[in-house]
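Escalation from tier 1.

The customer reports that the assembly of two entities below gives different structure tokens on two consecutive runs. Tier 1 could not reproduce it. I'm attaching the input and our single run for tier 2 to review.
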Amino acid sequence: MLPQRMKKAITDNPKKLANLIDLVNLPSTLREFVGQSQISRLGCFKCIWSYIKTNNLQDQNNKNVVNCDEKLKSILLGKPQVELAELPALIKMHFPKEPK
Amino acid sequence: MGKIPPSFRSAIANPNLRNPSSLFRPQPHHFPNKHQQPRKPSKQQQKPSSLPLFKSPNLEDAKKLFNSIANSSSDPRFPNSLLHSYAKLATTPSDSIKFFNHITKTLPSFSPDRSTFHILLSHASNNSNLLSPIHQTLNLMLAAGITPDTATADVAVRSLCSAGRLDHAVELIKEFASKHCPPDTYTFNFLVKHLCKSSTITTVYAFIDEMREKFDVKPDLVTYTILIDNVCNGKNLNLREAMRLVSVLHEEGFKLDCFVYNTIMKGYCVLSRGSEAIEVYNKMKEEGVEPDLVTYNTLIFGLSKSGRVTEARKLLRVMAEKGYFPDEVTYTSLMNGLCRKGDALGALALLGEMEAKGCSPNACTYNTLLHGLCKARLVEKAVKFYQVIRASGLKLDTASYGTFVRALCRDGRIAEAYEVFDYAVESKSLTDVAAYSTLESTLKWLRKAKEQGLAI
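Tier 1 run:
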């Protein structure tokens, strides 16, 4: 069951949830990374986060920082280092708002 | 009991199917070592009739299987249990009725009794949106010379309610009252309770009035308690209506019992109106109604919620004098009150006291404490506490998850916040969506706060 506040958020603004879970056609760079042609923003986040974990890309001295490998660099604006805090915002860039 | 993978389990069950007589062999008296026994036999020991005998909802297959084992038992209840296990599986209720007809034809010795029809009725609302299977069953019942009674009505109404078909249940209960017999109070109250959940209160009143006028079914104390509970609950909290119902209760000459008082008290407590809750408690004592554990728990919850922890603590002593032992709900309410006042360490001390008295905390207790520790900015303690929650595999609730993630992010421990996110998703505490949107909005808030140069 969804928590009360969440439920309210959804009824108030169904689009907010929709852009999190709707499948989106991906640009070619991202498509290569996730291995699918469509994914939701939530799915994409989980995919990238688990990629970071399985490949041990978090910096040993500061876990809040990710040292990107080539593959990750290609989808995260080519940055060599990314802070975990900005990961959702970076991912969001691949999912532009649909024009009205 | 040892776990058996599903594929292996069907392998055990299959020989039984091919050799049905093995199903009804004399039961072994005991298992020397229960843990090493596969699941099936021990189940068989308890309840031979609940074996998944029928594998497919196909009617013809079921008939064939029935023919092959029809005479293997002389127990008069045997056809009933077969009917029961098929009805559970059947795609439509009419299949079950056909199967029933098949049994009566092939086994002339079998005379269906009340329970046979109740089996059919209890499954008559599976995968069907019509009342006709129920009518059909009732006709069969009358044809067999059995008049439907209050139990029959109860079975039918309950099965309709569990399928979420309340309109049909209402229709059926009226029809029953006019044709056969009025429902008993259990059926009536059951239906009222379900109606309260899904319809407006006016619809429920209309239903109760109609039943009273047409069929002389009078609401009793339980009915009123259900109604009061409904108006005291969550989103449609309406205490004026609750008070009106209480006055109706007085007019009708009912003496209020502990449950009614507890319900009213809950209404006040949810609104954090501690003084009124105390008034109800005093009224109870005046009227000579003995408070029970729920009364004390409600009162302690309400007082804690309205910031009167000291009084709540006093009540803890009172209830102990009366011989009620505070349970995990009592302690959790108190901890909640302490945390609200910012005394998270006091709440933590209470946890020790609670455990010393042999009362084990539940998930809610841990969540309350985690929430309180975060609110009091004791992040280090909160992290340690979270490890305990994790180690015991308990679920996080939405509030404590959100607060904890926020506290970690504020402390710059983003990686740990991500780890909490993973745990929340993995332990199914929250939905992925809820967990992620909390994390995302927290990080967004963090960035904005940093940009504006706010101290965090």
